[in-house]
Amino acid sequence: MIDRPIALDAMGGDHAPSATVDGACRAVRDGINVVLVGDEKVLRRRIPKGVDIEIIHASEVVGMDEAPSSAVRSKKDASVRVAARAVAEGRASAVVSFGNTGALMAASLMELGRIDGVERPAVIATLPRSDDGQVVILDLGANVDCKPSHLAQFGVMGSVFAQNVLGLSQPRVGILSNGEEEGKGNEQVRAAIPVLAKMPIQFVGPVEPADALRGGCEVVVCDGFVGNVMLKSMEASIEIAGKVLREEILRRPGAKLGAKLLTGAFQRYRTRTSAGAVGGAFLLGVKGTVLVGHGRADEWAVNAAIHRAYVAVQQDLTGDIGNAISVALAAVEPTDT
Length: 337
What we know:
Helices cover 48% and strands 16% of the residues. It has 14 helices and eleven strands. It has helices spanning 18-29, 40-44, 68-74, 79-88, 101-111, 148-165, 187-197, 209-214, 224-251, 253-261, 263-273, 275-278, 299-314, 317-331, and strands spanning 6-9, 34-38, 54-57, 94-97, 122-128, 134-138, 172-176, 202-207, 219-221, 280-284, 289-293. The protein has an eleven-stranded mixed β-sheet with strand order 3-2-1-4-11-10-5-6-9-7-8, with helices on both faces. A hairpin with a 5-residue loop joins strand 5 (122-128) and strand 6. Helix 9 packs across helix 10 (253-261).
């Protein structure tokens, strides 16, 4: 068990503080040390009897509709910033938040800073593949516009993440494009390919979304605009597929009987495609473990996110990324970036 607790921004999220406190209590019962960050009076009355959980008081909250950077700068006692500060000061081992993603990134940069050599942090998550595996994708929204050097560093960080979190010894890394043929892709993709090829990773070149989701690689890099659109498109497609399936089952009486026989399969489908089962996405490239969860997270998603952050701390994901970036910087001349 790690000595320092996971700092949870208990005021962030659509269902905070009820979902965050309940999820944190579940994690505590599982043996994970958690500290809640937020309004102490509000949080204290949510904690059930018999659960021993620390609270760090924070008098301010960054709303979902606020401009992230300016709000974090002006609200020095905002829960998300206080949580990140706890990690920077060594009082916590990781920060987890389900609030404003931009605010969490700004707070992390202000309080923790970037890993030496990392130009841009990136949001990373895993998506289910059709071959029953998983594919890691980054960036998912932290950087709308990227230079080739940014994408190359994403490849290194994504490779380390796949090794640590997914247990893969040699993850294949591809760059998202509209085709694998030479000359395909926009100017950004074409410029990034030779830089990625020099990285100490198993780079397989450009990959299309369908190929990546069928098992063509384990890590996909792209800029935050493309990655965020792809993620939201997948979430919408999964939701629509489930809705259409339910409508078709209810359309015919005989299909309802068959649906009952497939209850287990439907439950496994929801588990594989649910954001709540994963818990959240990591912000890689800062000096600390940072995990951002979906704003609609319930207590189960909060619990899953805390567990995921706990494992990342145990495996020293941040330290391994720092070491890998140092090696990668030595492999590329400044003129290549």
